[in-house]
Amino acid sequence: MRGSCYGDVTAESQPMPVPPPVVRRMRAMSAAPPPRILAIVPAWNEQDAVGQTIKDLRDARPDLDILVIDDGSGDHTAAVAAEAGALVCQLPFNLGVGGAMRTGYRYAVRHGYDAAVQVDADGQHDPAFLGLLLDELKHADVVVGARFAGEGDYRVGLMRGLAMRLLAGTLTRLTKERLTDVTSGFRAVNRRAMGVFAVHYPAEYLGDTVESLVIAHRTGCRVVQVPVAMRPRTTGQPSQSPAKAALYLVRAVIALGLALVRPWPTQLELPPPEKS
Amino acid sequence: MTTNYILGILGSFIVLFALFEMMRRRRLREKHAVLWICVAVGLVVIALAPGLLTYLAELAHVAVPANLLFFSASVVLMLLSMQHSYEIGRLEDETRTLAEEVALLRLAVESPEPTRLEDTE
A68: part of which helix (H) or strand (E)? Predict the structure, then answer.
């Protein structure tokens, strides 16, 4: 069933005129072209934060293309992001982070990017660590920017902490890599993993973080982490009430359990690379 | 007894007619209709021959025949709602894919090339 509605990514990417003329000229001049990297920023009602986030990204890494996925926001997120100089892709209604990310990865694959980084719109993720994440792609397919790994200080409640440790522990055992923070949305992904995520990126609760890592592992991608410090959110508050934290734990266990028993395709669905 | 009998026949024929009419007007997809037609025909048969229900109840060792009817009705309803949950999930998946494609196409129409690359020119 899944295959029938998602499997056409490959076929559809054919007629897209992939490299813009500028890029082609640049390639012709230098023997080894610099890797093209796309920053995917999922944003939902983040008009107060997204402008600064994009500005920081552009200041820190002017070589990145920035694609903001406006996840059906009811505010001016799209306008603010476009104003700040990002490409904006507007979803017609809210799909959740998973839907936004899959859209971003499809864009990246179809436009022949070499790597993609995933950055939250609320400014939690410090673009200063992007270099570290991208460097680590030499050894892995998915690099997660992790809290609790020594860098920075980040505190969570007891229940939430328990849930996060449980998720991290299970994935560590599964992937045999040390993973301390699997719910982080700060990631770098190479071509291979991009091809997987462009086809399978779950939209369900916690699917965008935990389950997507399970999928990446199942499809043969190597998942590693790099310790990063997170900045405090500029807008909005994290949910910290005990009831919410307990609910989070329950949902995390269900989501993880399902992710582990679900059948995932073991083959990679890599679209053809751009025509030369 | 006779009132019940007439009511049962009337009710079951109304269900059968309503289903037929929905299919005729293409309101009901054929794949959903099969189960419903079985239900409607079953109802008509039982309404016409109530003895059949009593016979089946005895076969299944159900003391009150009406309970057999209730039980099978609840099983059918549960199966139907399971099928609907499945169909909704599939539709949500398809809608999601369409929404993503629409967003990408809109982006391609509105700004065919990354703006940053134009800046470098």
Answer: strand A65-70
The answer to whether A106 touches A188, Cβ cutoff 8 Å, is no
Whole-number Å distance between alpha carbons of A120 and B70:
53
A217: which 2 tokens?
Answer: 């592992």
Domain boundaries, chain B: 1-48, 64-111
Searching chain B, which residue's CA lies closest to the CA of residue A200? B97
The rounded distance, in Å, linking the Cα atoms of A232 and A7 is 40
A20 and B114: CB-CB below 8 Å? yes
- Residues of B whose CB is below 8 A from A59: none
Predicted confidence (pLDDT) per residue in A48-93, tens digit: 889 999 999 999 988 899 999 999 889 999 999 999 989 999 999 9
Q: Which domains does chain A have, with CATH numbers?
A: 2-14+34-261 (3.90.550.10)
What local confidence, expressed as pLDDT, does residue A18 receive? 45
- Chain A: residue nearest B107 by CA? A89
* Shortest Cα distance, chain B CAs vs residue A268, angstroms: 19
A66, amino acid identity: I
Q: What is the per-residue pLDDT across B14-63, written as a single tens digit (0 to 9) for each?
A: 988 888 888 888 787 777 777 888 888 888 888 888 888 889 999 989 88
| Category of A140 on φ-ψ map: left (φ > 0), alpha (ψ -120 to 50) or beta | beta
Is the Cβ of A93 closer than 8 Å to some Cβ of chain B?
yes
| Closest partner CB to B100 (pick from A2, A85, A102) | A102
The secondary element (H helix, E strand) that includes residue A224 is strand A223-227
Give yes or no for A89 touching B (CB within 8 A): yes
Q: Does A217 touch chain B (CB under 8 A)?
A: no
Look at the pTM and tell me if it is higher than 0.90.
no
Number of CB pairs, chain A paired with chain B, less than 8 A apart:
59
- Give residue-wise pLDDT tens across range B49-104: 888 888 999 998 988 988 998 999 999 899 889 989 999 999 998 999 999 999 99
Interface of A with B in 103-132 (CB under 8 A): 103, 106-107, 110-111
Nearest to A271 by CA among A14, A3, A5, A4: A14
